[in-house]
Here is the input.
Amino acid sequence: MIKEKLRVGVIGAGRWSNSAHLPGFTRSPLCDVVMVCDLHKDLAEAAARKFGIPEAVADAEKVLSRRDIDVIDVVTRGGSDGHEELTFAALEAGKHVLVEKPVCHDYKDVWRAHELARSKNLKTKVGLTFRYAPAVRYMFELISAGFVGQPFVFNGYEQNSQWLDPDNPMDKRIHRVRPVGETPRGTDQRREAIAVASLEGYGAPTIDIGLSCVGSELTQVVGILSNMIPFRRPTNLDAERVRINIDDADMFIGECANGALYSLQSSFVTVGNYPGIEARIYGSEGALICRLVEEFGECQTLRGAKPDAVEFVPMTIPDRFFPPGYQPGEPWPSLFYANLVHNFMQEIVDGGEENQGNFAQSAKVQEIINAVALSHREHRWVGLPLDGSAAR
Ligand SMILES: NC(=O)c1ccc[n+]([C@@H]2O[C@H](COP(=O)([O-])OP(=O)(O)OC[C@H]3O[C@@H](n4cnc5c(N)ncnc54)[C@H](O)[C@@H]3O)[C@@H](O)[C@H]2O)c1
Here is the structure.
């Protein structure tokens, strides 16, 4: 049992760090952020002032080499900025790790990171934000208590209009100089070569919720990726639109080991407020519909129905699923992330086996993403696990 508060180092002080991660850590009574790092030192310094963090640095090595840090949070962007490299370096340095999704683009690398963490007795957590929504936590509890009975059908979908406007730069970062040495995604123009984008965005946490709703693994999937708006401004520094061949809408169906059917769509060109995730589970004893959408001043609703009362009625989410300091009307990033961060700190402090939403879960989600991309490329059903072994 750790007696003192956990000491956290945060790498990345951009938008998501400021709106979700740092407010979450500041709110958990179990930890203190002792160092914040960003390649842009002014961003690290601004975050340090705002959140009362004693030290701001520009070099991640300074965080990785600090012996008194217990937990490292990687909240850089994926791709060439590298979640992967920093994640492996943090695990090698013996730190518990929280990282934004995707940990790595190839599910096999996520399993490697999981095995490394396990070999060092370290806990991991991935930014699968939406499983920590109070409504989803209650949904999972109801499912465990038998509310839906045997699961028959899961539908997950996401509405999100963030990139409906082709002049909204595809790369959300505010670049001061043009990035060098980055391989632009979506340059291969063939239909089979559409680069995965939306499915790794809010598709990933929706897949995650679905797996917990059906309580089973997927055994096969067939899916399609689409590029609805081909010409976009790549970055804030570009005036012209260019062809970017990425998945801005996708859909797949799957079959689960327990016989349940599974469907999912994700997109960032669909009209509606985001995150815009809806998860529906229908079973032998009942059904639940959870909606995580900012509308009418609420960012989450849960409704349930039973075979003898088939109208879906709103369900009140018990107080125990809300983080300390919850304010009604609180925006979803801080509300859901406060639960995620506190849950991770609690799992580390408790020291037991419990570690939900960890690299193993993220590897399963990433394997499904890789399988759907393969199905799209090869126009066929794809069996899971991808290595052909028996279901895990
Ligand atoms: N889980 C969710 O719901 C959710 C929501 C939004 C964003 N995200 C994820 O959060 C991550 C960050 O997104 P963002 O919008 O904040 O991006 P951002 O570009 O605003 O911030 C990333 C910051 O990391 C810094 N950085 C990059 N490499 C670094 C390195 N090696 N060392 C130190 N600093 C480094 C950059 O300078 C930048 O300031 C992305 O992976 C994104 O996909 C997740």
The pocket of nicotinamide-adenine-dinucleotide is lined by residues 11-17, 37-40, 43, 60, 75-78, 81, 100, 127, 129, 172-173 (CB under 6 Å).
